[in-house]
Design brief:
This protein is an alpha/beta fold and 378 residues long. The protein contains 16 helices and 12 strands.
């Protein structure tokens, strides 16, 4: 059960693994357009039910709860696994009094960075039989928020390392030509959807740090940087799209020619094929784009937040900087440019694929997920 119809591709391998294990699965989604339902139907043939209980209107959600409870009673699940906070509230309300075990999967630490959410969870979180923390950082945040240690399991979110593979030199040139990028300049890529600033977390600031990135890039260019920046990703919703437009329209003319802005792509691998280094300037994150970048042998410059320090290790797989520090980020981009020109970035990329793959390749992740489900059933 999840409250989004867009993205959330991490749901597919988890549902697929459960079905291959012989489990029957049903996915509850809110109404609305998006790519998640078609992916679930076309690749897995999984049963899907739309419910207003997961939609954005609190009034409609409350009104739809009885029908959701009846649907769950008919399906009679052993486990209800919910992702993202609205779905957590709805799933708990819809399953109270039933026999299903409740599992709250928390993909990232942002969930616990809202004081209001943390306060609610001190009470509502007691209804969860398990919390699947998406990283060690999420586990620590859950503990600090009062979740009992015995109920937390680390179940990570990863990437398919069999499809995200390092490009050949020829494929890199082809990708750059396709995107209209310089063929010889160092290329930095940022793959992230745009979220409007969060009111209940991060002091109302941008989660993904796009504003920090563009300030850093302006400084990098002004101090002699010769690289090119690819920013790939559209708004996650209308508010995110409006925020994206406002930020991109403020790019100064002095740096505009060194930036290529792309909308959300069906296949993000083209950006990593073209790039030398990935950047994740988030103010809050689990592993984010750093995992897919590592799979394609691209090292990452990342903010030292959430789960990113678990996969981005300075001088081993990339560079870490303080969050919200555009000056430090600009310096790291300069350092990465030098590493690209000397070939050091290639060594970091090779390390990244090896070390991150051993932790976050999907077969490893789904095996952990199924092991925890079986344990809960026992």
């Amino acid at each position: 059960m999840t409250k989004t119809t867009v993205g959330a591709r991490w749901l597919l391998p988890l549902v697929s693994a459960a079905m291959e294990e012989g489990m029957r699965a049903k996915v509850y989604l809110p109404p609305g357009d998006g790519d998640l339902a078609p992916r679930l139907c076309s690749s897995l043939g999984v049963e899907i039910e739309r419910t207003q209980a997961l939609g954005p209107s609190p009034r409609c959600a409350v009104a739809a709860l009885p029908s959701l409870r009846r649907s769950l009673h008919t399906f009679d699940p052993d486990i209800v696994n919910y992702f993202l906070y609205r779905a957590a509230l709805v799933a708990r309300a819809a399953t109270l009094g039933g026999r299903a075990k409740r599992v709250h999967s928390v993909p990232g630490p942002l969930f616990y960075e809202s004081q209001l959410v943390t306060l609610v969870e001190r009470f509502a979180g007691r209804w969860d039989h398990r919390v699947f923390a998406g990283s060690e950082a999420v586990r620590s945040a859950a503990l600090e928020s009062g979740v009992p240690a015995e109920g937390i399991r680390v179940v990570r979110f990863g990437a398919d390392f069999s499809s995200f593979v390092p490009p050949t030199p020829c494929e890199r040139l082809q990708a750059r030509r396709l995107l209209g990028l310089p063929l010889q300049s160092p290329v930095f890529v940022v793959v992230a959807r745009w979220y409007a600033p969060k009111r209940l977390a991060l002091g109302g600031r941008d989660v993904k740090g796009h504003d920090v990135l563009l300030r850093a890039w302006e400084r990098y260019v002004a101090t002699g940087g010769g690289g090119h920046l690819v920013v790939m990703g559209g708004g996650i919703d209308r508010a995110g799209s409006e925020y994206r437009t406002s930020i991109l329209s403020s790019i100064p003319s002095s740096t505009r020619s060194s930036i290529t802005c792309l909308d959300t792509a069906e296949d993000v691998r083209v950006a990593y094929r073209a790039g030398d280094v990935s950047i994740s300037p988030s103010r809050s994150e689990n592993y984010g784009a750093a995992v897919e970048a590592a799979a394609m042998q691209v090292p990452t410059i990342a903010s030292a937040v959430g789960g990113l320090p678990e996969v981005v290790i300075p001088k081993v797989t990339g560079w870490l900087v303080s969050p919200d520090d555009s000056e430090a980020l600009a310096t790291a981009i300069h350092d990465a440019e030098e590493a690209i020109l000397t070939g050091e970035a290639g060594r970091l990329g090779t390390n990244a694929r090896t070390s991150v793959g051993a932790l976050l390749d999907w077969p490893i992740v789904t095996s952990s997920y199924l092991r925890e489900l079986r344990d809960l059933l026992r």
